[in-house]
Design a protein that fits this description.
It is a single chain. By secondary structure, this protein is an alpha/beta fold. The chain folds into 3 domains: 3-99 and 333-353, NIF3 (NGG1p interacting factor 3)-like (Udp-n-acetylmuramoylalanyl-d-glutamate--2,6- Diaminopimelate Ligase, Chain: A, domain 1, 3-Layer(aba) Sandwich); 109-126 and 239-325, Udp-n-acetylmuramoylalanyl-d-glutamate--2,6- Diaminopimelate Ligase, Chain: A, domain 1 (3-Layer(aba) Sandwich), CATH 3.40.1390; 132-233, 2-Layer Sandwich (Alpha-Beta Plaits). Helices cover 27% and strands 29% of the residues. The strands form 3 sheets. It has a 6-stranded mixed β-sheet. The chain has a 5-stranded mixed β-sheet with strand order 1-4-3-2-15, with helices on both faces. Helix 6 runs antiparallel to helix 7 (208-218). The relative contact order is 0.16. Keywords: Metal-binding.
């Protein structure tokens, strides 16, 4: 396989369309047409990560965090980012970063955290807006089934746990082909009325190009009439964070002791205990201060995240417990998630989980 084929698999799982605007995701270093020898899967790409890739004959690094986040104006080796990029280029190693595209997936970073905590009845904490679109088209009645099936085959009409969803109305359409037209139905210069089915389907925004191609390929008309609307509906299977429930209530201190053990935390900073049992748990891997109010509004008893600042803890307002388990600690299992997914898709070369510990924080 070449690098691009691996990228296609990753982006089918976590489309880059859903990465946050501030992020820098995708192929960051290397040639997409290079044949892959082996791939190293890691949370961060550091100099020692590149050295591990060299040692293990990996010419592709699949990293959760992107090593290039801001712009690079020079490559002189004056900082760790430049040195990493230079070392990768010198050794013909491609680097790919997925980051918030995977954060926003239902089966992504936060689902992995929830799995480790044994949470049930999981839901997205902050469902994403503007990621669902609606296609409306008009098709001769006798061709409606064919067009509908073509749209379904490309992912249109999938809503949550349901597929093949559409709404259909029958009516009469009219048109008059001009002298330059090549009508399948009707005659040039004459108004024609045709019994048509109006088909309406919703679809995830990232599938649009494939769905439109299917529409044009399957539709019998020379000129296809269609409308696309962006919906404000919340996407319940896409977004930041996750909330779920423990199988049974737990004492606050005992629960955090379990969290500390599961995530191998050097320590957990938390707001004041409230003397109430923990049942409903909200999580968000990485820096999650922005979602404190969402966790409160969702009725969480505790919100587990990372990178909370001093004044963030006041936002608990005695409504929930805030717990900072550490940035690395909250996302450490992400590389296992990527490995698990890709190992089911790839058998032509070795996938290797990085041994390098990339946590920059140490504890006494």
């Amino acid at each position: 396989m070449i690098v691009q084929e691996v990228i296609d698999l990753i982006e089918d799982f976590a489309p880059l369309n859903y990465a946050e605007d501030f992020d820098n995701v995708g192929l960051l270093v290397g040639d997409k047409n290079t044949e892959v020898t082996s791939a190293l899967i890691t949370l961060d790409t550091l100099e020692k990560t590149v050295e591990e890739a060299i040692k293990k004959d990996c010419n592709l690094i699949i990293s959760f965090h992107p090593i290039i986040f801001g712009g690079l104006k020079k490559l002189t080796g004056r900082n760790y980012v430049e040195r990493i990029v230079m070392k990768a280029i010198k050794n013909d190693i491609a680097i790919y970063g997925i980051h918030t595209a995977l954060d926003n997936q239902f089966k992504g970073v936060n689902d992995m955290i929830s799995e480790k905590l044994g949470l049930q009845n999981r839901k997205i904490l902050i469902p994403r807006r503007n990621s669902i679109k609606k296609l409306t088209t008009f098709v001769p009645v006798q061709n409606a089934d064919h067009v509908r099936e073509a749209l379904f085959a490309k992912g249109a009409g999938s809503i949550g746990n349901y597929d093949y969803c559409s709404f259909n109305l029958t009516g009469k359409g009219s048109f008059k082909p001009n002298e330059d037209a090549n009508p399948v139905i009707g005659e040039k210069g004459k108004i024609h009325f045709e019994e048509e089915t109006q088909i309406g389907v919703t679809y995830p925004a990232h599938l649009e190009s494939g769905i439109l191609k299917a529409l044009f390929d399957s539709h019998p008309y020379e000129e296809v009439a269609y409308e696309i609307h962006k919906l404000d509906n919340k996407n319940q299977h896409l977004g930041m964070g996750m909330i779920g429930e423990l199988e049974s209530e737990k004492n606050e201190k005992e629960f955090l002791e379990e969290v500390k053990q599961v995530f191998n935390c050097g320590g957990i900073r938390h707001s004041a205990f409230l003397g109430k049992p923990i049942k409903k748990v909200a999580v968000l891997g990485g820096s999650g201060a922005f979602a404190i109010d969402k966790a409160k509004a969702a009725g969480a008893d505790i919100y587990i995240t990372a990178d909370l600042k001093y004044h963030d803890y006041y936002k608990a307002e005695e409504k929930l417990v805030l717990a900072d388990i550490g940035h690395y600690e909250s996302e450490q299992f992400t590389k296992n998630l990527l490995y698990s997914f890709l190992s089911k898709k790839i058998s032509s070369f070795a996938l290797i989980l990085a041994d390098t510990n990339t946590n920059p924080i140490n504890y006494l």
